[in-house]
Design goal:
- With 378 residues, the chain is of the alpha+beta class.
- Helix content is 27%, strand content 25%.
- Among the domains are: 7-110, DnaJ domain (Helix Hairpins); 270-377, HSP40/DNAj peptide-binding domain, CATH 2.60.260.20.
- Bound molecules: zinc ion (ZN) (2 copies).
Length: 378
């Protein structure tokens, strides 16, 4: 294909088209160009691929956003890889076209676009992806951690090795309902339509002698204890993908993935902003006035920090490299100590006397902020 056409143009819709408009436009075009209705027509097949690709991108809010912002370039030098997601597109047909239109496409469930045409369903169904939500502390996020989780998932049945048939049984037999065609023909007076056989789900064969362990479904549910490694610096709400740790697909279908979504609990004293950590530390009036060395908490222990004389509330002391590890894996953010000068709420007799003495001799000219304020009044 030469120059790629604009996806909105391909579907003949406006840039602000709603998802319903996108679906409707695609449905019409897909019906027009579907290879089943244009056998041997290369041009129609190209068209069909083009509209399907446009639909794939524009019907997905994430991909649409990327496309709107960057155009075709948003999908890399190879452009949009539609073969990767094609199985999903096929499965989406029923969603878009509904039962009536599905009959036009029932065949496409047996079509491998890049190979032979068959009437039987021949691909395998992938197992479901699973999601597990994990909560960790900010300190665990800072250092990285390992946790055991328990999940329940489908595994291949060990007795029948996922086939669903009794090990010594005769295996599969031709489906009696469709005589092995994978489709049944229905007539409602006007139309004669072929639909996927409900008994064998299009496979043309059924299990003759079901495995007793899994009742013929080829998989069983098990509990698993899985060790999850959380990398240091992980962001709140991000997901880790454990490939192949989801449900096993039915009848030896590929395994789904397990997604661990990690949430970081709010910490009592530390606040995270990307790779920096902010901690508010209260100090006394005299510490602020005269200066001091104070001990402050970090994510991994304590360190001493010099508070210079004349430190104001809100002053930030930046401690390099004591923040969160950067997600990129290189270096760390900083720890920002935000000073808060606090006023005593009770005083001993002696303290009161001394404060009184200071008050008597105090020169407000030494307070630039008070001076500035007074000047602006006059
Ligand atoms: Zn079994
Ligand atoms: Zn059948």
């Amino acid at each position: 294909m030469d120059e790629k056409r604009d996806y909105y143009e391909v579907l003949g819709i406006g840039k602000d088209a709603s998802i319903d408009e996108i679906k409707k436009a695609y449905r019409n075009l897909a019906l027009q160009y579907h290879p089943d209705r244009n056998p041997g027509n290369k041009q129609a097949e190209e068209k069909f691929k083009e509209v399907t690709e446009a639909y794939e991108v524009l019907s997905d809010p994430e991909k649409r956003k990327i496309y709107d912002q960057y155009g075709h370039a948003g999908f890399g030098p190879q452009g949009f890889d539609w073969t990767q997601d094609f199985s999903r597109v096929r499965m989406d047909f029923s969603d878009i076209f509904g039962d009536i239109f599905n009959t036009f496409f029932s065949d496409s469930f047996g079509v491998d676009w890049f190979g032979e045409r068959t009437t039987k369903r021949q691909w395998q169904i992938r197992g479901s992806d699973l999601e597990y939500r994990m909560y960790i502390t900010l300190k665990e996020a800072a250092t990285g951690t390992e946790k055991h989780i328990n999940i329940s998932r489908y595994d291949e049945c060990p007795v029948c090795k996922g086939t669903g048939s009794k090990p010594q049984g005769i295996g599969k037999k031709t489906c009696p309902q469709c005589q092995g065609k994978g489709q049944v023909v229905k007539s409602n007076g006007f139309f004669t339509v072929a639909t996927t056989c409900p008994k064998c789900k299009g496979e043309g064969e059924i299990i003759a002698d079901p495995c007793l362990n899994c009742k013929g479904i080829g998989r069983i549910r098990n509990m698993h204890k899985i060790l999850v490694k959380i990398p240091a610096g992980i962001e709140h709400g991000s997901s880790l993908r454990l490939k192949g740790q989801g449900d096993a697909g039915p009848y030896n279908g590929p395994k789904g993935d397990l997604y661990i979504t990690v949430f970081i609990e709010k910490d009592k004293i530390f606040e995270r902003i990307h790779s920096d950590i902010i901690c508010e530390v209260p100090i006394t009036v005299t510490q602020a006035v005269i200066g001091d060395e104070i001990e402050v908490p970090t994510l991994t222990g304590k360190v001493k920090v010099k508070v210079p004389p004349g430190t104001q509330t809100g002053t930030v002391l930046r401690l390099k490299n004591l923040g969160m590890p950067r997600v990129s894996g290189y270096g760390k953010g900083d720890l920002l100590i935000k000073i808060k000068v606090v006023i005593p709420e009770r005083l001993s007799r002696q303290e009161r006397q001394l404060y009184q003495q200071i008050k008597d001799i105090e020169n407000t000219d030494n307070y630039p902020e008070i001076k500035k304020f007074r000047n602006s009044l006059s």
